[in-house]
Amino acid sequence: MVLGGKLTTEYQRLGTRLLQLVQELGRRGAVRAVPFALVEKETRAVAARCVSNDAHIIGLARASGVRLLCTEDRVLGDDFRNKDLISNPRGNVCNRASHAKLITKHCNCNKPSRKKK
After folding, report:
1. Counted domains in the chain
2. Residue 97, SS3 per DSSP
3. Which of 36, 51, 71, 98 qualifies as a FRET site for 77, CA 20 to 30 Å off?
4. pLDDT tens string 19-39
5. pTM for this one?
C-alpha cells in the first residue's frame, strides 16, 4: 500500500478505524509513504487530463510506481487504465473477488523470498 498527498488527508477524515488499519499495516512494513511534494507535482501534471475527480490518485500512482488500484469507482478505473496517464507499465484495476490474481501479480507480500547462495 502506498500513501501520500491528498489521499492521506482523505484517510484522516474517514476516521479512527481506517487509521488503525493503516497504522497496523505500517507496523508490518506494508505501507510506503510517498513525499507530498512529489505526489502534488504528478497530480498537477495530469489533473487537466483526468476524467474522474481523483487526479490525486493518479498522481500518487505515478509518483510511487504503483500499478494496481483496488476501487469500485468506474471513472477512476478508466483514468487508471488510460495509457496517457499511466504507462510503463500500464495500470490494472481490481474491483471484484475474481481479480485477486492481480494482487498476487503486483504484490510481493505473498511471494517467497529468494535467498542468495
Report:
1. 1
2. helix
3. 36
4. 898 999 999 999 999 999 999
5. 0.81
